[in-house]
Amino acid sequence: MKHYHYIFTGSGLAALMTVYEMVLSGKFEDKSILLLDENSKKTNDRTWCFWAENKAFDEIVSKKWSSAWFKNKKFEEKLALHPYQYKMVKGLDFYTLIFDLISSQKNIHFTTQKVIDFQELGNHCVVKTETESYSCNQIFNSIFHPEIVTNQTQYPFLHQHFIGWFIKSKEAVFSPDCATFMDFSVAQKGNTRFMYVLPTSETEALLEYTLFSQELLQKEEYETEIKKYIQKLGCTDYEIIEKEQGNIPMTCYPFWKHNSKNILHIGSAGGWTKASTGYTFTNTIKKSKALVQFLNKESDFRKFHKTNKFWFYDLLLLDILAKKNEVGAAIFSAMFEKGNSTIIFKFLDEETSFWEDLQVIWKCPKGLFVKALLRRLF
Questions:
Q1: pLDDT tens-digit map of 286-303
Q2: Which of 153, 193, 217, 321 has the fewest beta carbons under 10 Å from its own?
Q3: Could you give the angle at which helices 13-25 and 281-295 cross, rounded to 10 degrees?
Q4: Is-contact 284 13, C-beta < 8 A?
Q5: More confident residue, 377 or 191
Q6: What is the mean pLDDT of residues 192-211?
Q7: How far is CA 232 from the centre of its chain?
């Protein structure tokens, strides 16, 4: 049985970002590292978007926007994002960047195998795949098992689920310098539903029909709504270049309680997704940097997690949406109609002071949040 210092069970965004930070730190060259995943990471299976002030990952950013539309049935506003830019990274470009880097590291290995089990046995761990077994000092697990969350009721669990089409139109119907962050003008049907549009030229864009809800839809319903929206844009002749589909967990469930001395849950399996929005890229950058710094000082994974005020803010929002899923449009609309978009994005990035928090929170429907707070307290 081959032994490694660290094994990553699952090699998605969190695992690859953590390994990337390990390499950049230059402090893990004496540690043997194995990444295991049933997916070879050689296809463009997803798109990540994030806002940033710096040039993070600019070498693989395929498109940037300095402004974005927010819309509902009664209101629309073009948000100036400065000092931020909204950025798009294609999955395959990210995978290529990371694998090009780690391929030059003699101590890091990637194997395409499906993990079926892992466990901690005293001072070491064992990982089993469909074909082999490995031992290691410590495990970073990013394989998400939703039943951990669905089998409890203390913390709400929503899905951010979507289908996206990359289309190319014969007509010039898009403004390539401005994304559509959220368009709640689509029929809500008792849920929180919106369109998300990322134009890359006057004739090309990614359009995603997105929901924050407890129940998933049939594929045909997502695609019917995308077709309706494209027609509303005045686009009558187009081709679908590519499709993507996703389902991101939205929950404040305390995944860190499942960490042990030598097993750490990361990514969606560790609660690294921003619970109130489903955004993962920026959160993963921050968490992976913090994890690498932690590894240079500590070895007991039970000490890694820290809860902050934003965890509680997210919990209140999810409590509301779990009980009254149809009010999501009203909550986000109140924020963007009345608030400062720069502070809102800073707030969603968990970078605001308490005074700035209040500037965002007080724009939201107060009755909903007061009731949610009282339910949590009492």
A1: 999 999 999 999 999 999
A2: 153
A3: 50
A4: yes
A5: 191
A6: 97
A7: 29
Residue 107 sits in a domain whose CATH number is: 3.50.50.60
User: Quick one: CA torsion of 327, 330, 332, 334, rounded to 10 degrees?
Assistant: -150
**What residues contact 221, with CB distance under 8 A and at least 6 apart?**
none
Q: What is the pLDDT of residue 177?
A: 94
Report the run of H or E that residue 336 belongs to, with start and end.
helix 328-338
> Which domain does 112 fall in, by range?
2-55+90-151+254-303
Cβ-Cβ contacts under 8 Å for 110 (sequence gap 6 or more)? 11, 34, 35, 36, 37, 99, 102
115 lies in some domain: yes
CB 142, CB 64: distance < 8 Å = no
Look at residue 227 and tell me if it is in a domain: yes
What is the pTM (predicted TM-score) of this model?
Answer: 0.94
**88 near 61, Cβ under 8 Å?**
yes
Residue 377 has pLDDT above 90, yes or no: no
**Which domain-ending residue is among 250, 270, 291?**
250
Domain identity same for 191 and 335: no
> What type of residue sits at position 32?
S
Is 368 within a domain?
yes
Specify the residue for token string 């686009």.
235
Q: What is the pLDDT of residue 215?
A: 95
As a residue count, the chain comes to 378
Q: Is the dihedral of CA 159, 160, 162, 164 positive or negative?
A: negative
Q: Are 26 and 133 in a shared domain?
A: yes
Side by side, the strands of the sheet bearing 204-213 are: 76-80, 67-71, 178-183, 192-199, 204-213, 157-169, 238-251
